[in-house]
Amino acid sequence: MVKKSARMQVLVNLAQREEDKVSELVASERQKVDLDKRKLQDLMSYAEQYDQERNLLGMSSHLAINYQHFVDRLQQAIRQQEGQVARSEQQYNMAMRRWQAARAKTKGMDWLKDKSVIEEDRLEAKLEQVQNDEFAARKFFDNSR
């Protein structure tokens, strides 16, 4: 007969695999957030460079208008990237919550398995004590005849 703790170990293993899978997702989402933040920082740095150069250059009104259109598009790209960072962080946070739930499930399953092991050990010890008592009683009974 398969012990309850052995059956529970199968559930613990399944829960651990799911936790590991979600953990990989969390790492992937974290990398995406970092990449999106680096892209945003690059865009902001690029915009700052252009802003500094504009102040240093004397431009005709035609060039200034074209330059301003470019800067406007760059600012729009920055806003879009900020939105992407926010979405990436939201995905990361959702993955973290999934991992936390998976971790809690694994810990719960492991606790139940440990509880089963303790109960099985207690029952085995009780059974062994009963067998020892029966053996001692038989031996005593046999010796008294």
UniProtKB/TrEMBL annotation:
Organism: Marinomonas mediterranea (strain ATCC 700492 / JCM 21426 / NBRC 103028 / MMB-1)
Family assignment from sequence similarity: Belongs to the FliJ family.
KW Coiled coil (keyword) present: yes
Subcellular location: Cell membrane
A GO CC term assigned to this protein in UniProt: plasma membrane
Topology of this chain in the membrane: Peripheral membrane protein
InterPro entries the record matches: Flag_assembly_chemotaxis_eff, Flag_FliJ_proteobac, Flagell_FliJ, FliJ
Cleavable signal peptide: none
GO BP terms, alphabetized: bacterial-type flagellum organization; bacterial-type flagellum-dependent cell motility; chemotaxis; protein transport
UniProt name for this protein: Flagellar FliJ protein
Coiled-coil regions, chain positions: 71-133
PANTHER family: FLAGELLAR FLIJ PROTEIN
GO molecular function terms noted in the UniProt entry: cytoskeletal motor activity
Keywords: Bacterial flagellum biogenesis, Bacterial flagellum protein export, Cell membrane, Cell projection, Chemotaxis, Cilium, Coiled coil, Flagellum, Membrane, Protein transport, Transport
Main location: membrane
